[in-house]
Amino acid sequence: MNQIKIAKPILWSYFQSTCSWRVRIALNLKAIDYEYRAVDLLKNKGGEQFSKEFTNLNPKQEVPILFIDNYLFTQSIPIIEYLDETRRHGARLLPDDPVKRAKCRIIAELINSGIQPYQNANVIKKINAEMGKDKRKDWLHFYLNKGLNAVEEILKETKGRYCVGDEITMADLFLVPQVFAAKRYKIDMSIYPLINTINSELENIDDFLRAHPYSQPDFLRI
Amino acid sequence: MNQIKIAKPILWSYFQSTCSWRVRIALNLKAIDYEYRAVDLLKNKGGEQFSKEFTNLNPKQEVPILFIDNYLFTQSIPIIEYLDETRRHGARLLPDDPVKRAKCRIIAELINSGIQPYQNANVIKKINAEMGKDKRKDWLHFYLNKGLNAVEEILKETKGRYCVGDEITMADLFLVPQVFAAKRYKIDMSIYPLINTINSELENIDDFLRAHPYSQPDFLRI
């Protein structure tokens, strides 16, 4: 498809959203300049994601959304795969070897579909309201530990300096935001030595630091 | 990596698991013969997935697992992407165009991370125990409708005969099992005309029929 490339990509993001954070790291690693549009998921009662305007952009009422090359894309994994397929400069987010690519995607999915759906603001609000605070803690600890345990296990096989070998890959973009979220939910991370070591390697890299929630323009608003 | 190719691939599967079903369709579309190993997720109290032997294969204690080319792979999306990258025969599960590839992946993720985590046996058991039967119904209807609504919306843009254009893609492998699950949970599917039309096109294709839960060797066991 020949589309006229227009000016800057636009990212709809929320500073604390782990899914937005993954895409922010990818955009930084690919050195893609973009316009940041903050969507306040917690503002007022419902959150800005439920507005008519935003729902038109994404009926799932979630961030991130990336507008790039004249298209709107949702869902962090498809966005990151698209960026890697269409931008060959900067870090290669998926290695060439199909087995290593699969391992990167497995780590990403363990977090994306295995943990994140159980810790997002929407589900936690529901669990809190229906089950109460103690059960909310049990819920979070059960799903986060189940997922993190599986990540720690696969890292025994795939790890180098980073999640899969010695180059940064898509897997690393999922690890760092997830570790941050786990700490916020007071998960005992001392039982995950590989996750910790790799996270420490990654979190101070400039492209990761600039994607951190505290570095986002909407951080100061709350 | 040069690995010695050994005999038949092995799929650990449960007949009713939507995630296993997706991979069964992919294997059929690629004409890959495989050994079926049934893992009974509901047997006894805990289910066979919690056995020590199975946990060694997959610490996440989930099906599917595919052993192929001397490697073990988990997670349906990475498995399907791997099959498509390494087997160029049979259906192409992802189109060449990067925008269309992204759209296929978005539809797959809307189901994989957007719906499935809220309807799997493990979470439903928890919701039932903690919130009761009525709330369980509300939970399922909320998350399934939220996800199916987003799928119906994106199909307006991507649809041809199938989910993305006129060729079968990865998106279709996610749609058919999800529609089956939604019907089982008594979701009113009449409000999703595009999903229904495309599902009807797909469900009677031989490679889909042979992957159906009722065609699996473990179906008769319960």
From TrEMBL, chains A, B:
SUPFAM superfamilies found in the cross-reference section: GST C-terminal domain-like, Thioredoxin-like
Name the UniProt record assigns to this protein: maleylacetoacetate isomerase
GST C-terminal domain span: 97-219
E.C. number: 5.2.1.2
Keyword Lipoprotein carried by entry: no
Record family assignment: Belongs to the GST superfamily. Zeta family.
Record keyword Transferase present: yes
Keywords for the protein's UniProt record, in alphabetical order: Phenylalanine catabolism, Transferase, Tyrosine catabolism
One function term, GO molecular function aspect: glutathione transferase activity
Recorded catalytic activity of this chain's protein: 4-maleylacetoacetate = 4-fumarylacetoacetate
Pathway: Amino-acid degradation; L-phenylalanine degradation; acetoacetate and fumarate from L-phenylalanine: step 5/6
GO terms (BP aspect): glutathione metabolic process; L-phenylalanine catabolic process; L-tyrosine catabolic process
Occurrences of domain GST N-terminal (ranges): 7-91
Cofactor: glutathione
One Pfam family linked to the record: GST_N_2
Cellular component GO terms held in the UniProt record: mitochondrion
